[in-house]
């Protein structure tokens, strides 16, 4: 199988190098490469995350080496012209001995990269199956049948792909076709199984919201659902073209591989699907939180603050050229905005209308401005006065600002998310699993 011109593999090389550069940038912005350090505590969840991180990075590293080296050999060997005048990429059997000896090691690298890719996607599939199949009894990931299924898949992928190369090494021209056939078959099967997860995911998100999941967890799950939906499409774009080339390459005649257009077209489609799906996997395994990086958090109402009676305070902010000061007749540093305006043109919330929410920040809790006669900007806000006879909201209560009703509301549920699995309550990524034995409530990144 000598399909694919040097230009087709040049596309693979460019995509691989560009994505590897983005990988370095993303991991630096994510946590300054801390995710690559082995856990000093030696806890099982930490070791599991490191193993998955190294497996994913090994996939991209091996793909870069394979694509660049294979492209170099393709360009050095060039093409052949048949007696009929047709131009083909030179078959590997006709390579010079100095170049031919590198083909088999590169194919072993390629099979190892595909094995690592299967491990990462198989882990995510089994993890979501584990979360979706939670019953009344809380199970641990490392004691579940889904984890044992992932271990079995890891062993099969880790041994099966290199063994495919080893068995078919006698004929280098068809060795790549067998790697494509075995790898694309396993990847397509994994992607088809992931359709079940996508079908169940909207109901899972609704259940998390109904059980009192925190807004940042719900938003992260929604984002992951959308990313996985797009990744499934690109994974089919990666596996199906290579599966077509593989079927054509292992049988007698090769009408597709010997067609310059279709061979290059399918090779390029497979490369685009491979690296775009790997890009989405990077965003899922190592999700950045721009809200946290910029210093924004959801507002928490402390125990000492209650929601009534309400009084209005007037604050003067002097925007001078040399100084800025804030003067207020009362001190209420933890106040939240609740400022209805008689001049507001917003319609009142009607029954059945979904309210719009935004998180409130106690450091930036202004809404309506008016200019006074002395040049100051007047800002109206309301605070909650602390009293002894009014019951305070719970200390861990988390509220959001409803722009239509102009008040703070509980997000979906007043419960403490008791019905949610601890992995969901502290969810960060499918490979970042909290240690329930030593840390029941780790910080959510």
What does the overall shape look like?
Answer: elongated
Helical stretch tally: 10
Order of helices and strands: HHEEHHHHHHHEEEEEEEH
Largest sheet: 4 strands, antiparallel
Quaternary organization: single chain
Enumerate the spans where pLDDT stays under 50 for 5 or more consecutive residues. Answer: 302-399, 409-417, 438-445
Q: What's the pLDDT, averaged over the residues?
A: 75
Find the CATH topology of the domain at 6-288: Rhopdopsin 7-helix transmembrane proteins
In order across it, which strands form the biggest sheet?
4-3-7-6
Number of strands: 9
Name the CATH class of the domain at 6-288: Mainly Alpha
Q: Termini separation (Å)?
A: 47 Å
Radius of gyration, CA atoms, in whole angstroms:
29 Å
Proportion of β residues?
A: 5-15%
Q: Based on helices, strands and strand pairing, what is the structural class? A: alpha+beta
CATH architecture assignment of the domain at 6-288 = Up-down Bundle
**Helix content estimate:** 40-55%
How would you describe this structure in keywords?
single chain; alpha+beta; Rhopdopsin 7-helix transmembrane proteins; four-stranded antiparallel β-sheet; 51% helix
Summarize the structure in words.
The protein is an alpha+beta fold and 445 residues long. It has a domain at 6-288: Rhopdopsin 7-helix transmembrane proteins, CATH 1.20.1070. The protein contains ten helices and nine strands. The strands form three sheets. A four-stranded antiparallel sheet has the order 4-3-7-6, with no helix packed on it. β3 and β4 (324-327) form a beta hairpin. The chain is elongated and about 75 Å long.
């Amino acid at each position: 199988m000598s399909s694919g011109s040097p230009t087709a593999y040049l596309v693979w090389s460019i995509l691989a190098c560009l994505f590897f550069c983005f990988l370095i940038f993303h991991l630096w912005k994510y946590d300054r490469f801390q995710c690559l350090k082995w856990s000093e505590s030696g806890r099982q969840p930490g070791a599991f995350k490191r193993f998955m991180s190294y497996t994913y990075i090994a996939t991209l590293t091996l793909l870069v080496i394979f694509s660049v080296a294979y492209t170099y050999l393709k360009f050095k060997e060039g093409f052949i012209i048949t007696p009929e005048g047709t131009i083909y990429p030179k078959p590997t059997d006709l390579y010079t001995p100095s170049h031919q000896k590198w083909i088999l090691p590169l194919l072993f690298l390629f099979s190892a990269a595909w094995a690592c890719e299967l491990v990462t996607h198989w882990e995510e599939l089994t993890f979501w199956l584990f979360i979706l199949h939670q019953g009344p009894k809380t199970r641990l990931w490392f004691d579940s049948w889904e984890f044992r299924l992932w271990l079995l898949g890891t062993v099969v992928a880790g041994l099966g792909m290199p063994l495919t190369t080893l068995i078919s090494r006698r004929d280098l021209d068809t060795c790549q076709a067998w790697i494509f056939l075995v790898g694309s078959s396993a990847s397509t099967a994994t992607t088809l199984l992931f359709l079940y997860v996508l079908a169940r995911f909207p109901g899972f998100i609704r259940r998390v919201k109904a059980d009192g999941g925190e807004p940042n967890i719900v938003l992260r799950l929604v984002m992951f659902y959308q990313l996985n939906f797009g990744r499934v499409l690109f994974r089919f774009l990666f596996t199906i073209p290579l599966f077509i080339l593989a079927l054509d390459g292992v049988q007698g005649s090769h009408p597709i591989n010997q067609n310059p257009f279709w061979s290059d077209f399918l090779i390029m489609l497979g490369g685009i699907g491979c690296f775009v799906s790997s890009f989405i996997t990077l965003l899922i395994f190592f999700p950045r939180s721009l809200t946290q990086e910029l210093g924004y958090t959801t507002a928490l109402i402390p125990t000492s603050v209650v929601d009534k009676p309400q009084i209005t305070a007037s604050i003067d902010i002097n925007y001078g050229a040399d100084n800025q000061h804030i003067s207020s007749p009362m001190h209420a540093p933890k106040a939240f905005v609740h400022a209805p305006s008689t001049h507001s043109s917003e319609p009142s919330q009607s029954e059945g209308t979904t309210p719009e929410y935004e998180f409130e920040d106690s450091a930036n809790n202004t809404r309506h401005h008016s200019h006074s006669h002395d040049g100051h900007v007047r800002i109206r806000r309301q605070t909650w006065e602390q009293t002894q006879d009014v019951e305070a909201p719970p200390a861990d209560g988390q509220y959001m600002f409803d722009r239509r009703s102009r008040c703070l509301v509980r997000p979906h549920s007043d419960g403490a998310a008791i019905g949610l699995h601890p992995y969901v309550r502290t969810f960060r990524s499918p490979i970042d699993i909290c240690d329930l034995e030593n840390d029941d409530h780790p910080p959510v990144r």
